[in-house]
Design brief:
By secondary structure, the chain is of the alpha/beta class. The chain has two domains: 161 residues, 3-Layer(aba) Sandwich (Rossmann fold); 36 residues, no CATH class. The protein has seven helices and five strands. The protein has a five-stranded mixed sheet, with helices on both faces. α3 runs parallel beside α4. The protein is globular and about 50 Å long. The mean pLDDT is 86.
C-alpha cells in the first residue's frame, strides 16, 4: 500500500508530465473523457488538476450546484505546466448525467467514436443525429477519447436506478470498444472527515475502503480501478 506524501505526489506529477503518445499514433495528446452524474465534480476536477500543474489556482471550467448540469457542452481542456508548456493530456468535460435527460447510450457511443465535435452543446431532450451539421462523419483517432473516467460522488448509494443503469450501459459500450476505464471517487473529504483533515490517511481509511467496495459491487469495476 503506497504512503501518500510529498515524494509520492511529485513522482506522480512527473509521471503525468512525461506521458506522450507513441509516434506511430500521430497524436498530440491523450483524451480522457469525464462522465458522471450532475454534481459529481467533473468540472471541479478539471480546475483542480490544471491548478496543480500550473502551480496556482486556476478556473478553466465553470462550476456550480443546481438540479441540472452546469456544464452543457463537450469541452476538452488542455493541461499546461508552470512554464505554460502543454502536457500531452486533455481532460474532456461533459454534461452531467441525469436519469431521463442528457446524454443517452447512443450519444455516448457517438462520443466514444469521435463523432461529436469539441464545444458541441448537448441537447437535454434530443440526442445528436447523423444529419446534424455538427456530426463528424469521418472522425480520426485524435477525435476519440482514449480513456473514460466515471466520476462518482459520495452519493453513489443513492443513485437513481435509471441513472445507475445508464452508467452500466456506458461502461459496456466503452468495454466493447476496448477503451480503458476507471472510477474516480470525488468528495472523499466529505465522506471521511479524517481524510479531509489529513489526506495522507486516504489509503488507510476504512470508510473510503467500504465506499470503494460498494462502487465495485454496483458497477462491476475491479477495486484497483477505483
Amino acid at each position: 500500500m503506497p504512503e501518500w506524501n510529498r515524494k509520492l505526489s511529485q513522482e506522480l506529477l512527473q509521471e503525468v508530465k512525461s506521458l506522450q503518445p507513441s509516434p506511430e499514433m500521430k497524436l498530440q495528446d491523450y483524451r480522457i473523457l469525464l462522465i458522471g452524474p450532475v454534481g459529481a465534480g467533473k468540472s471541479s476536477f478539471c480546475n483542480t488538476v490544471n491548478s496543480v500543474f500550473r502551480g496556482r489556482m486556476t478556473q478553466r471550467a465553470i462550476c456550480g450546484e443546481g438540479p441540472h448540469s452546469i456544464t452543457t457542452a463537450y469541452q476538452p481542456y488542455i493541461l499546461n505546466s508552470k512554464d505554460n508548456v502543454p502536457l500531452h493530456v486533455r481532460l474532456c468535460d461533459t454534461r452531467g448525467l441525469e436519469p431521463n435527460f442528457g446524454i443517452d447510450t447512443m450519444e455516448f457511443s457517438y462520443l466514444l467514436n469521435g463523432h461529436i465535435p469539441e464545444r458541441y452543446e448537448f441537447n437535454a431532450e434530443k440526442s445528436i443525429s447523423l444529419d446534424d451539421p455538427m456530426f463528424v462523419l469521418k472522425p480520426s483517432l485524435k477525435d476519440r477519447p482514449h480513456c473514460v473516467v466515471l466520476l462518482d460522488a459520495t452519493t453513489i448509494g443513492k443513485l437513481d436506478e435509471k441513472l445507475l443503469e445508464k452508467i452500466k450501459n456506458f461502461r459496456k459500450s466503452a468495454t466493447r470498444k476496448q477503451i480503458p476505464q476507471a472510477v474516480l471517487l470525488t468528495k472523499i473529504d466529505i465522506q471521511d472527515k479524517a481524510v479531509g483533515q489529513h489526506l495522507e490517511k486516504v489509503y488507510t481509511s476504512t470508510v473510503i475502503e467500504k465506499k470503494v467496495q460498494e462502487i465495485s459491487n454496483m458497477i462491476g469495476f475491479p477495486k484497483n480501478h477505483v
